[in-house]
Amino acid sequence: MTHHADGVVARAPGKLYIAGEYAVVEPGHRAVLVAVDRFITVHITPCSPAGEYAGTISSRLYANGSRSWRRRPQDGQAEAVGGEDDYIISAIRVVETLVTQGGGRPRSFDLSVSSELEENDGRKLGLGSSSAVTVATVRAVATFYGMAADDLTVYKLAMLASDTVQPIGSGGDIAASAMTGWVAYTSPDRSWLRRARQRARVGGSVSDLVEADWPGLSVRRLPPPSLRLQAGWTGAPASTPALVADVQAGSHGADDYAVFLRDSQDCLARLITAIEDDDTAQIMRQIARNRALLAGLSRISGRTIETAELARLVEIALEHGAAAKSSGAGGGDCGIALCTPATDLVALRAAWETAGILPLDLSVYSQDSSAVCAADSAEARADSSNASPR
Fold first, then answer.
1. Going by C-beta distance under 8 Å and a sequence separation of 6 or more, which residues neighbour residue 259?
2. Mean pLDDT for each consecutive 10-residue tract of the chain (390 residues)?
3. Strand-pair category, 53-58 with 182-186
4. Is 302 left (phi over 0), alpha (psi -120 to 50) or beta?
5. Rg of the chain in Å (alpha carbons)
6. Cα–Cα nearest to 352, from 376, 381, 327, 317
């Protein structure tokens, strides 16, 4: 997070699921994720309001590169001009609600977004860009208003912002992006959250909701194990919300689904303990088990999670002595391999390339170790994004 004379820069990393995807959508279920060293950077610059507009948001994710935002006459809250409210507008609104409820006054600003979470042609890599942009916006807006927000507060604010736009998410992506490093996550009860939020709207405070204990929620950093993470992209972007909705629709009510959830909880409990103990053999066993559980869920729901390309990615990793599986919703996107020191990473990556899988050049990102470089490179990026918001 960097303060500039002319504004604020904040960034948030992308993520990869290690295990527990799909199960974590159910409240109280566990997952393990990592933050990766590719970022979304948000730069906020104060501006003078022009007519009804409070500012512009620049991002190459918008068809024409930018959109204006304004304040609603009835309550002064942020809204998009033309088109739906998105993660950025929702994040501005949540943080500003906290600011105004604390006696602060809303200000006008321009916001620009640059992203490293897509290919150059704009195809998403499955690294959680929606969550990263929400987290980065929350951090930037909070800093802009002089609010101190720890990682858990950032997670909660981003979760509230995200839940308005895409209610099906587990929040795992957001947790990894806010906490960084290796993260053990248990999802909160979203129906409780929506009721609590409704109460906050009707006269309660967002601040109380953020400070409350959220039923089911647990987020904690794990010590990094000595296995090395490799990730490969199949070249086929997948829609997580659509896949999750499909798999849920196909499996809810099935007895097998309850068994899947129970087995997943056990697998994740063992995996988390193994990561804490750096027990590489047990970590690899539980990764293989999690892959098998997802294959079972695929059968129950009648939906493809591990595509032929992802299966090939896993087979190649296994041939090189690594543990591997699909990462996230599957149906395309990424697979991961956890490699022992004996694995020849160059050979593994070359074999992936031969099979048409793009090895992603990324590492696990942990805020502690990189806080200083984070500020420096955020500063450099801010200068370049000023010139041309990507």
1. none
2. 72 96 92 96 92 89 86 89 88 94 93 86 78 97 94 96 84 96 96 88 84 96 97 78 70 81 97 98 98 92 88 97 92 90 97 96 82 38 35
3. unpaired
4. left
5. 21
6. 317
